[in-house]
Amino acid sequence: MIDALCIGAHPDDVEIGMGATVAGMVARGLEVAIVDLTDGEPTPHGTKEIRAAEAGAAASALGVAERRTLTQPNRYLFDTVEARTELAEVIRELQPRVLYVPYPEDAHPDHIAASQIAMAARFYSKFTKTDMAGEPHYPAKIYHYGAVHMRVVAKPDFVVDVSAHLDVKIAALLEYASQFSDNPRNAGVIPSVTTAAHMWGGMIGVEAGEPFFSPEPIGIVAPETLV
Q: Which residues contact 93 (CB under 8 A, 6 or more apart)?
């Protein structure tokens, strides 16, 4: 059993949305894995080989020991039984306590589909009478992270203080040279991500933060422990 499984439509989605949170979990000794539903290619300056190397380097920068790429098609990702099953089998194998998945509203169809696939795969993973590999498992919690293409500011259910790990997130994003530094159209992405982190941090009185959204009520034991 692992502590958290972070799911993205493409390599770099998890880093953009919650890279500093991932780095923080790893620093606290939690076991975290990343699953990319597609390899993210084709893109203007990337190849399958380049993107795989970048994703591996980014995972290493975050301290994540396990990252997997599934077989779904980039730009044509759909919520199908096959996609749900492929991800559910990973969930059944790794047995995560918590799933982190893309925000369900986005301009990018792949991100919307990834959210739908992940929600369904969480349900599929508990099936008993099935041909799926692995033992039944139902992650106790599921949260959405924000890595969207729309210029909107949704109200999060909680914001994680990532002040101590924002630099690790940026270092991981810099590993995706084909997507950012080598692509002039995306030159502003990393500065924008940094600005957003400071904005969210300011909302909770810290240097940097990352927002999360919960489809279910969040239970706490001691309100005085909140930031």
A: 133, 134
Residue 225 lies in a domain: no
In DSSP notation, 57-85 reads: HHHHHHT-SEEEE--PPTT-----HHHHH
Helix (H, G, I), strand (E, B) or coil at 8: strand
For 129-143, b where at least 16 C-beta lie within 10 A, e where not — what string?
Answer: eeebeeebbebebbb
Q: Model's pTM, two decimal places?
A: 0.96
Domain CATH for 59: 3.40.50.10320
Q: What is the mean pLDDT of the chain?
A: 96
Percentage of residues in the chain with pLDDT exceeding 70? Answer: 100
Distances 151 to 105, 168, 192 between C-alpha atoms, Å:
11, 25, 12
Q: Is residue 226 part of a domain?
A: no
| Residues 22, 14: Cα–Cα separation, whole Å | 9
- Which structural domain range is residue 95 located in? 4-147+154-215
Within a domain: 222: no
Residues of the chain predicted below pLDDT 50: none
CB 98 within 8 A of CB 5: yes
Identify whether 224 is part of a domain. no
Single-letter residue type at 107: A
Output the six-digit token pair for 195: 């600005």
**What is the count of structural domains for the chain?**
1
Token duo for residue 151: 């210029």
Residue 179 CA to residue 184 CA, distance in Å, equals 9
Instruction: Pick the closest to residue 41 from 26, 28, 53 (CA basis).
Output: 53
Instruction: Give the DSSP H or E segment for 101.
Output: strand 98-102
- The phi, psi pair for 161, rounded to 5°, reads -70, 110
